[in-house]
TrEMBL record:
Highest taxon in the source lineage: Bacteria
Family the UniProt entry places it in: Belongs to the short-chain dehydrogenases/reductases (SDR) family.
UniProt keyword annotation of Oxidoreductase present: yes
UniProt key word Cell membrane: no
Name the record gives this protein: SDR family NAD(P)-dependent oxidoreductase
Keyword tags: Oxidoreductase
Length: 196
């Protein structure tokens, strides 16, 4: 591994651990919020405790890391914060995971304005299925992780505010402008496998 790379243990649901990582990694100018969970059996009508666990990682954890590292990015010239989100933020996927990513998308947009004055580029990365352990239980087409990573870094260097890493995500983005009465029947058909 490159000698400049220092791996730190980090549980983003633990405020002390996040503060500790920020106290150590004071030289960073790029923060990528990649951590996320998508437990099997997750349902938007599932138990409260599971919903809180998912939000604790995907929403509060992401926001906690952004908040802890914002002053470090400022001190290092502004830098970049990239939050790994999901196209499920823009679709009627019946999971708490999707709701947590919608909340994280909103927070990403809010952070972009909040950190604008300090010169931080805040990027939302949205993508459908990526071929990782998280999506192993779904037998659907998936994007290669390397492609997502390449698009993310290209987006950062191009000054992008959003990186949409597959065709499905780009289509969902365009549907945001359509009335729900028009888009819902189409999306319900596309996403029927979630409730089958
Ligand atoms: N796979 C997909 O289809 C897909 C699609 C859209 C978006 N995404 C998003 O892409 C990101 C990466 O997911 P993935 O596909 O690589 O899933 P994954 O294979 O399940 O990996 C999840 C990663 O998040 C880390 N993590 C989970 N909870 C954490 C915590 N509390 N603190 C620190 N790290 C934690 C895990 O670390 P450990 O291994 O140490 O537990 C692991 O490195 C997530 O934000 C996910 O929502 C994935």
């Amino acid at each position: 591994m490159d000698a400049r790379v220092v791996a730190l243990p980090l549980d983003i649901t633990n405020p002390n651990a996040v503060a500790g990582a920020a106290a150590t990694a004071t030289d960073v100018d790029l923060v990528i919020n990649n951590a996320g969970i998508a437990p099997a059996g997750d349902s938007i009508t599932g138990p409260d405790e599971e919903a809180r666990l998912i939000f604790e990682t995907n929403f509060f954890g992401t926001l906690r890391v952004a908040t802890a590292f914002a002053p470090i990015l400022a001190a290092n010239g502004g830098g970049t914060l990239l939050n790994v989100l999901s196209s499920s933020a823009w679709a009627p996927v019946p999971t708490v995971y999707a709701a947590s990513k919608a909340a994280a998308w909103s927070a990403t947009n809010a952070l972009r304005l909040q950190l604008h004055g300090q010169g931080t580029q805040v990027v939302g990365l949205l993508v459908g299925m990526i071929d990782t352990p998280m999506s192993a239980r779904w037998d659907v087409p998936k994007t290669a992780p390397a492609s997502v990573v390449t698009q993310a870094y290209d987006g950062i260097s191009d000054g992008a505010l959003e990186v949409l890493a597959d065709d499905e995500t780009r289509q969902l983005r365009s549907l945001l402008g359509s009335p729900a009465e028009k888009s819902f029947p189409y999306l319900a058909e596309q996403l029927a496998f979630f409730t089958a």
